[in-house]
Amino acid sequence: MTNTTDETAARGAKKDGADPARSHMQASGSRFLRHGRWFRRTGWRHCVALVACAFAGFPILYIISASLNQQGTLMSANSLFSSVTAGNYIQLFHLPEQPYGDWYINTIVIGLVTAISSVFVGALAAYAFSRLRFRGRRAGLLILILLQMFPQILSIVAIYLLLTDMGYIIPALGIDSQLALICVYLGGALGTNTYLMYGFFNTVPKEIDEAAKIDGAGHARIFFTIILPLVTPILAVIALLSFIGTVSEYAVASTVLVSPNKQTLAVGLYAFVSQQFSQNWGLFSAGAVLAAIPVVILFLFLQKYIVSGLTAGSIK
């Protein structure tokens, strides 16, 4: 269509006695101006999006390529998909001293239990701070804010000593116990989750609670049948963040869990690359790819709640 316009302009210019070459230059200049305006308005956004996609997608392609390379070295994985084989994935589940299958199951169980428990405990605390008025409420909120300033890694020594002494009294809550690790995760995430849900709970009108109380509903019925369905987005966000944090956490898990058959993926996979003369990046990459599958599935399942949950929870 542009060529037809240029030919028409050239014919019109020739009929009027003008120079066709000059008319063609004017048409090319107008196209250049239109393209320049388009680039200034929206075109640069496409360029930024392409760069961002390449920046985010290259590590994924690299780790998949390394997982399909049987040689197991970083130098051999520099050429993407130079060697494609499923040997690393098959070998993962046939290592007697490194039970990848047990690590996988342990990670999913610990992650799901931690996510569900974090949502339930955090929702109870957030409802109490949002709807109830009691002595020490403001001080409690301030403590929650202060707790978020300190990373959990600062308490590793205290956690180890506490679980060691507690193991003599309650063996199920001692060192090398998955239940103890879940309890540590719950305590560490309680402050952040509660404060995030507290902001979301405040967006729910209190008139709904008052109307339910007039009909004879108590706090338990209001919480489980009215409030929770209205705050589903933030519950999904907390569950997703807790699950991702549990799957990728290494420092606390390596301190609490000692037996190889009780460890999580983050701790177990480190064994593939921790020793100087027995590093196998192919197995590590294959294990990392498989470890990402539950996170991706959960993210796709909860993605419709993520944006609304994060934005609405930050209003307050």
Report on the architecture of this protein.
The chain has 316 residues and is mostly helical. It folds into two domains: 2-67, no CATH class; 89-313, MetI-like (MetI-like fold, Orthogonal Bundle). The chain is built from 13 helices and no strands.
Secondary structure elements and their pairing?
Elements lengths: L1 H14 L4 H48 L19 H6 L7 H32 L5 H11 L8 H14 L8 H24 L4 H9 L4 H12 L1 H17 L2 H6 L8 H10 L6 H33 L3
Indicate the structural class.
Answer: mainly alpha
The backbone outline, from C-alpha atoms, is flat
Largest sheet: none
Low-confidence stretches: 1-6, 12-18
Between the first and last Cα atoms, what is the distance in angstroms?
54 Å
- How do the helices and strands follow one another from N- to C-terminus? HHHHHHHHHHHHH
The count of β-strands is 0
Give me the Rg, rounded.
29 Å
In short:
The protein has helices at residues 2-15, 20-67, 87-92, 100-131, 137-147, 156-169, 178-201, 206-214, 219-230, 232-248, 251-256, 265-274, 281-313. By secondary structure, it is an all-alpha fold. 75% of the residues lie in helices and 0% in strands.
Question: Tags for this entry?
Answer:
75% helix, flat, 2 domains, disordered N terminus, MetI-like fold, mainly alpha, 316 residues
